[in-house]
Model the fold of this input.
Amino acid sequence: MEAKATFKYIRKGPRKLRPIVDLVRGVQVQKALDILKFQKQPPARDVGKLIRSAMANADRKGGINLDALYVKDIQVNQGPIMKRFMPRARGSASKIMKKMSHMTVVLGERI
Done:
């Protein structure tokens, strides 16, 4: 059995989320939450929230042993980009690209 959760429109760029996500891929859920709890990077909190949401989905689905869950697959994809402009010298402007991410996690059950 599998449980899935998605977190869309995260106001962090995918390049900042991917190193954190790589730490917990393939790891048992409780150990993954412990790893994320002691990370310095602020996006680790968002990843932890998503894993806990997938655990709640698995519990709600029923028939899944929560102690045997592991992070089967976790992905971070590019979301929409908000385009902003900042004034510069001599009446010109420069672009500011505020990137967003979509994150998906699939928890599987180890037999």
Observations:
- The mean pLDDT is 95.
- The first strand starts at residue 2 and ends at 10.
- The domain at 2-109 is CATH 3.90.470.10 (Ribosomal Protein L22; Chain A).
- The longest helix spans residues 43-61.
